[in-house]
Amino acid sequence: MAANFANFSLIDHPLVKKDVTVLRDVSTPPEIFRAAVKRISNILAVEICKDLKLTEIEIETPLEKTTGHKLAYDVVLVPVLRAGLGMVSGFLEIIPDAKVGHIGLQRDETTLKPIEYYYKTPKNIDSSKVILIDPMLATGGSGAEAINYLKKRGVKNLIFACLVAAPEGIKKLLSEHPDVRIFGAAQDRELNNKGYILPGLGDAGDRTFGTL
Length: 212
Ligand code: PRP
Ligand code: URA
Description:
alpha/beta; Rossmann fold; nine-stranded mixed beta sheet; two-stranded antiparallel ribbon; 6 helices; about 30% helix; about 30% strand; globular; binds 1-O-pyrophosphono-5-O-phosphono-alpha-D-ribofuranose; binds uracil
């Protein structure tokens, strides 16, 4: 039975559960893995976007004037390289006008600390709704560091979206960034002594890009 965490929302959906099983299966090849990541990302995006704010606009139908809606801000997706890239197309299908920034972080496999190697985000990111995307929330080191970078650039309106979250990573993010809501497709049991999530799905980047 998974623990309940404030600010952590588990997406409870049968199609997500089915596709998380595809991701976990060691025999799933990269092309099937990527397709499952994309489908889960579609559903995550729909759930996350339920809270987006709207402003009213006046438009004309072919028959008369009426009031419609547009998003109150730009949405910026920020995948953490490299594994986060696999989730971008699924999010863009639901939010096609979102901009996409990138943060390059590589976890040092000995210290488990994240090392930054790339950062590029849109200029108006401080006034945008930002969805930080990384399939794995393990120790939480990469996620917490990515949020630090974004907050230093003035980001205030921020959500973290992942596929598999470990309790250790959820606790770290919520203690260092209690203002950031986390959405996940699965909450797993624990980390092993190498910082891998159990039962998990292995190395998400390697499974996505076939670099095992
Ligand atoms: C993976 C994953 C996260 C990080 C999670 O990336 O995509 O960014 O590990 O681990 P943490 O919560 O303990 O920091 P990795 O560093 O393996 O890089 P990759 O995406 O290039 O494979
Ligand atoms: N990064 C991954 O890709 N998988 C894990 O289980 C932990 C960190």
